[in-house]
Write a structure and sequence with these properties.
Elements lengths: L1 E2 L9 E6 L7 H11 L6 E6 L6 H13 L3 E6 L3 H8 L5 E2 L1 H6 L4 E5 L2 E5 L2 H12 L12 E4 L3 H10 L11 E6 L2 H11 L7 E6 L3 H9 L6 E4 L23 E4 L7 H8 L7 E3 L2 H16 L8 H11 L4
Parallel strand pairs: 1-3, 2-3, 2-4, 5-7, 8-9, 8-11, 9-10, 11-12, 12-13
Antiparallel strand pairs: 4-6, 6-7
Helix pairs in contact: 2-3, 5-6, 5-10
């Protein structure tokens, strides 16, 4: 179910704040997860916003969740930065990561307070650990190229530079964006951290610029599509001249849409000996972490229980 104007919830309700929510597999997965997790009678409703929507719309939605007794919370995708920028004063509490990153991906209620969480550093870390070999970066000169400088890229860069992960951290991260403002915002954030990893900020106004950057990466490097192109909008951040790094890893954050970036990677998968990953595991970790927060239930991040939830989700994958 997708809605554009909130109305009072009649049963416990979680919201999905996105762009094209009805196209997401979560609409089929959530009822099955709810049964498996014994959440009781509840529903998930999608709410679609335009990219960089009117701040008043974000405020209306967050205020509604805060005031409506049976509206328990929400998962926020795409709008994580814009929503918090517009609504920071409406939250009674922000977790340290939300305050640090300036984004909210999870909205929940605790003891009458509206709470915002930034779950992406956790979920992106869990997802990347699922496909990279253990201790991959130790003694490795391979790089990470983040195509895009939005909230998801910011969260992953934070995870990759955590001091507690040393020495298992990449020696260099390259961030590209079409707008200098996005790069400046990310640089300002990184400058507040003692991260100990070299970060290179590259203005790439078009796909051709990204092609050059990706083609120059060291063998074994990780390339990530964090732009939203392929899901929130058509296309890819790369053109036809990009050569992925030999024996590298390619991660498409999305699992649905036209996924042109994923097709480009798979076209070179054998010739460049690539490991290509879509956003499905990221999807599962992202949703289970927020559902656990909204419904105050314990959901493991690995093991038989998590595997069962993954199996349920895979049976609904579209």
């Amino acid at each position: 179910m997708s809605t554009t104007t909130p109305s009072p919830a009649e049963i416990p309700t979680m919201y999905f704040i996105g762009v094209t929510t009805l196209k997401s597999s979560i609409m089929d997965v959530f009822p099955r997860w709810a049964d498996s997790l014994e959440l009781g009678e509840c529903v998930l409703k999608g709410v679609d916003f335009k990219l960089h929507d009117d701040p008043a719309r974000y405020r209306e939605m967050v205020q509604f969740i805060k005031d409506d007794p049976l509206s328990l919370g929400a998962l926020v995708t795409t709008h994580k930065l814009d929503l918090l920028h517009a609504c920071r004063d409406l939250f009674d509490e922000l977790d340290p990561l939300a305050a640090m990153l300036g984004e909210v991906s999870s909205i929940s209620k605790r003891d009458g307070k509206l709470v915002g969480h930034a779950k992406d550093p956790i979920t992106s870390g869990l997802a990347v650990e699922a496909f990279l070999p253990a201790d991959y970066w130790v003694g490795n000169k391979a790089e990470v190229c983040l195509l895009g400088a939005g909230g998801s890229a910011l969260a992953l860069s934070y995870y990759l530079t955590l001091s507690e992960n040393a020495p298992n951290r990449p020696g260099k991260i390259i961030v590209t964006a079409r707008k200098q403002r996005r790069l400046d915002e990310m640089r300002n954030f990184h400058d507040k951290l003692a991260y100990g990893v070299s970060i290179d900020y590259r203005l790439a106004p078009d796909a051709a610029a990204n092609d050059v950057i990706v083609s120059a990466l060291r063998p074994g490097s990780l390339v990530v599509n964090a732009t939203g192109l392929g899901k929130d909008g058509p296309g890819s951040p790369l053109g036809n001249a990009a050569n992925f790094p030999e024996q590298g890893f390619v991660w498409e954050f999305n699992y649905r849409g036209d996924l042109l970036f994923l097709d480009q990677a798979r076209a070179q998968e054998k010739s460049r000996a690539l490991t290509v990953e879509d956003g499905w595991i990221y999807f599962i970790h992202g949703w289970t972490r927020v559902i656990a927060e909204v419904f105050a239930v314990d959901i493991p991040t690995s093991g038989p229980r998590f595997d069962e939830l993954s199996r349920i989700a895979s049976s609904s994958k579209s």
